[in-house]
Design a protein that fits this description.
single chain, 225 residues, alpha+beta, four-stranded antiparallel β-sheet, three-stranded antiparallel β-sheet, globular
């Protein structure tokens, strides 16, 4: 669950509060002593900022002092105001739009590609890079601003991450984007790395699409029962 409310004495600013359920018994068994998601969200946001990567400013996390993994927890950050998600932009392009919020598709592709390349070059494997977890502000006369949300699953390394991890993030964010847009966006990401979006590299993207299609079909079948 997510709430947005005015920040105390914030002069028009807002806070976002996210509520996390307790970890399941299975996860507690597999990862004993691991922090709850609220604390991991806080840790992830702090580390992103330390590495010079944008995320809504963390304010606090709240959890139980005893056995926090067994109780609900909360993460609080400042809102990234007047923003859209990459999903909004990619869905618009997939439906035939050539611009989003006044910006041409090519400019948005380049901005997101450069941001994600910087993310990976700085040793971050985000792991939950759905298109809804990358926010963008694109005022008509301003540069595009980007920020990551839902930082609990991110992993951090001392050096740049490898191609396999890069593709793991890219195939998730590309899911709502049509193939023509993917070729331009991923090609823009790969070009400075000296690579092309060849058929071999497209396999993980096709696999991810197929997995999502299967999940949707299974949900439809269950809903009919």
């Amino acid at each position: 669950l997510v709430w947005s409310l005015p920040a105390p004495a914030g002069r028009g600013q807002r806070l976002v509060i996210k509520r996390f359920q307790p970890r399941s018994p299975w996860r507690r068994l597999l990862q004993p002593g691991a922090p709850d998601r609220a604390q991991r969200s806080w840790n992830g946001a702090q580390e992103l900022m330390r590495r010079g990567l944008a995320t809504p400013e963390p304010v606090a996390f709240l959890h139980a002092a005893q056995q926090p993994e067994r109780r609900v927890s909360f993460y609080v950050c400042r809102a990234f105001e007047n923003a859209w998600s990459a999903r909004d932009a990619f869905t618009a392009f997939s439906r035939g739009a050539a611009r989003f919020q006044g910006k041409p598709d090519a400019e948005i592709y380049r901005a997101i590609a450069a941001f994600l390349r910087s993310l990976h070059d700085r040793g971050v494997f985000f792991r939950d890079l759905s298109a809804g977890n990358l926010l963008l502000r694109c005022e008509r006369e301003s540069e595009i601003e980007l920020a990551l949300i839902d930082t609990a699953r991110a992993r951090f390394y001392p050096t740049a991450v490898g191609l396999r991890q890069r593709l793991g993030d890219l195939m998730r964010i590309c899911h709502p984007l049509h193939w023509k847009g993917r070729e331009e966006f991923v090609g823009s990401y790969l070009q400075p790395l000296g690579r092309r979006f060849n058929p071999w590299l497209k396999i993980p993207f096709a696999y991810y699409d197929a997995k999502h299609a299967l999940k949707k079909a299974m949900r439809r079948l269950r809903s009919r029962d």
